[in-house]
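Entry 12.
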Amino acid sequence: MTDAAITGVVPPANEPLTTADGRPLKSALARAERMRRVKAMLLVLPLLLFIGVSFLFPIALMLFRSVDNPLVADHMPRTVAALEAWDDRSELPDEAVYAALVADLAEAREDRTIGRLATRLNYETGGLRSTITRTGRRAARLEPPFKEALIDLNEDWANPETFATIKRLGNRLTDVQYLAAVDRRYDVNDNIVAQPEVRQIYVSNFIQTLWMSIIVTVACLVLGYPVAYLLSILPLRYSNVLMILVLLPFWTSLLVRTTSWIVLLQTEGIINDVLVWIGILSDDGRIQLIFNAEGTVIAMTQILLPFMILPLYSVMKTIPPSYTRAAMSLGANRYYAFWRVYAPNTLPGVGAGCLLVFILAIGYYITPALVGGQDGMMISNFIAYHMQRSLNWGLAAALGTILLLGVLILYWVYNKLVGIERLKLG
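Predicted 3D structure (tokens):
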């Protein structure tokens, strides 16, 4: 309440308005607005902390892990320092480098870190694991001149590429994992070259992952659009029953659903048996639908179909039927009215469903692992392999980062072409 309201006297035009306690009204309103914002921030702070801990921090850790490379620098410091002066890659390093190498390997052998060191070097150059471990066992007994002793012990120490690898991995931050993730590597002169053909697997698998995700998204759209349309036009008592059938797969474990597809798709499975029984296939001409890309697409389409139906249904349900009736009253037939009036109004649901299904499909792991076999593997299977079996976490992080970057690029393209503001879930 202002002074004017209390005294009944209107203040002069040049006198600022004040509150009941005499504070300027403008500053009081600004303070109230700040307090409102602080309260709102405190309310969402737990959510922000949860997102930061469970989402942002793991992504940041993955990005750092993809370039982090401390192992060689920590356990071969003498060798890395001695190789700083080695510039002529066509010649072997001098005796000082070999002496430093012997001292580092003997120390790594003593503190039992030589296994991890050998594994890290072997990721970059195949065969170095056995060379490092064998040399480490004998390093403490070697005598000068160390250059001749090491070359006699293993011919890899006569190869300049071995020392180029050690020098390259001596940097604590490196991009070798990203090069490996796109089937590239450094040669002895630090030029980027292609991996040997037998090791070129990741680029082709990225392409296969992208292609399979697009096929699954299109298949879900083709199958889900008429189902969502039917749900939106049926009376409520019927649409509720059909909606329960759509949601029923969510009540079953993903592992169980995937395993059931193995029973259905195998050569002696139910689908092949039915096709043979009705005469479409001969008993000797059964088709292979399991442990390949086709089986992966079929299983993923069934699993991800509800994620397409639900956004489509939620948008279709809000479209008034009068739109189509008005178009038909103006002379359009049923199909023309559907494609020119009804279908464009469902585009926000189509965009939401396609984006949701595609992002889920491109990172799928369990279904390709169980149903895909060698031909149906996706990039997520390689990430899991390097995390769980080869323990090359740096390469797994690089593959994951490239996959994340690809999804963000596609999201940006979608925003530019369609507009993210048009994406609706209801």
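Annotation: Confidence is low (pLDDT under 50) at residues 1-6. The chain has 21 helices and two strands.
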